[in-house]
Design brief:
The chain is built from 9 helices and 10 strands. The protein folds into 2 domains: 99 residues, Phosphorylase Kinase, domain 1, CATH 3.30.200.20; 210 residues, Aminoglycoside phosphotransferase (APH), C-terminal lobe (Aminoglycoside 3'-phosphotransferase, Chain: A, domain 2, Alpha-Beta Complex), CATH 3.90.1200.10. It starts with 13 loop residues before the first helix and ends in a 12-residue tail after the last helix. Helix 3 packs across helix 7, helix 4 runs antiparallel to helix 5 and helix 4 runs parallel beside helix 8.
Length: 345
């Protein structure tokens, strides 16, 4: 009796995916190439001189309803002419393909191709475009309620203090068995973030669906025109989280000497001025930005414990290096009267 040994994850054959796309979309001579493995698997699809991106989700990470919410957001953004890589329907009008893999049912979505490439250090025109288009995205996302309501097992991420600070901190504790000082630092840092936020009127912060990962790897520039993609971590929360993720990336550039502090301040001001041409952001929201970065790091470190592709990032040696890096950033960018906790020896 022939049987297939069970697997928790498989890499789907590009040639079989090409056949699937050809059959579902009615396109001739489809070619498919595996590009990268990450939260999901990414493939380049080509047909009749046109390029597309096929994203194959991992069933352990996203269910059908959650993927549908991502599709709905992107279609709303496309309709509003916000520059995003958008899902493309097949000839039956379906955006989500169902695939029977070794590990069980998986889902795939075909997206438009984002022209251009990632740019690490943006020029003035690109900063302006990024600010304007992020604000336009927020204008749309703030007014949406998508399938998979909050609080259900099918919901998207919810970004709040529980999901970005308290929950991740508790779940990460076992991974700090060899670095108790590092964990104690995180505990103290979380307390200081909470203390800072209690001084702000967070009830007035704008909310909506955030990308929560606005790093250069997730948007392409074709000249001065931007296209956003990879909304896999989209969820509902304060919209300033998106501003935070972009600002934080620039602080990392400064840390490694790719930007000067003066260049960061100038770029951030230019970006914010462009953002404010479409949408307001309060001074209190901007005051929270340096402190919200801690939640970004804790959220993604917590996620790394749930995905075998990222297990290396929570191994003791790697985790200790990352913690010390986060400590250095906090120490530099948390202004008085809430300085970052002292870095243990």
């Amino acid at each position: 009796m022939n049987s297939i040994f069970p697997a928790s994850y498989s890499t789907l054959m590009p040639s079989a995916l090409a056949d699937l796309v050809s059959r579902k979309y009615g396109w001739p001579a489809v070619q498919c190439e595996f590009l990268m493995r990450g939260v999901g698997d990414t493939y380049l699809v080509e047909s009749a001189g046109n390029r597309y991106i096929l994203r194959v989700y991992r069933s352990s990470h996203r269910n059908r309803v959650q993927i549908g919410a991502e599709v709905d957001l992107l279609l709303a953004l496309q309709q509003a002419e916000v520059p995003v890589s958008f899902p493309i329907p097949d000839h039956a009008g379906e955006h989500v393909q169902v695939i029977s893999a070794v590990e069980g049912q998986r889902y795939a979505v075909l997206f438009s191709y984002a022209a251009g490439s990632s740019v690490a250090i943006l020029n003035a025109a690109q900063l302006g475009e990024l600010g304007r288009q992020m604000a336009r995205f927020h204008q749309i996302s703030a007014g949406l309620e998508l399938l998979g309501g909050l609080g259900s097992s099918n919901s998207r991420w919810t970004f709040d203090l529980e999901t970005t600070l308290f929950g991740p901190l508790a779940r990460l504790k076992p991974y700090f068995a060899e670095d108790p000082a590092g964990y104690a630092w995180f505990e103290q840092a979380v307390e200081q973030v909470v203390a800072k936020l209690t001084q702000l009127d967070v009830s007035a912060f704008s909310t909506g669906y955030c990308h929560f990962d606005f790093l250069p790897k997730n948007f392409h520039f074709d000249g001065d025109n931007v296209t956003f993609f990879d909304f896999d971590f989209m969820g509902r929360g304060w919209l300033v989280y998106d501003i935070m993720s972009f600002w934080q990336q620039m602080t990392i550039h400064v840390h490694f000497g790719r930007m000067t502090p003066e260049a960061l301040d100038e770029a951030y001001a230019h970006f914010l001025a462009a953002y404010r041409t479409y949408r307001s952001v309060s001074e209190q929201e901007l005051e929270a930005v340096p402190y919200l970065t801690l939640g970004f790091w804790l959220f993604y470190s917590d996620f790394h414990t749930t995905h075998d592709g990222f297990y290396e990032f929570v191994q003791p040696g790697h985790l200790k290096i990352r913690v010390r890096f986060i400590q250095q950033l906090m120490k530099k960018y948390w202004p008085d009267p809430f300085p970052a906790p002292e870095i243990p020896d």
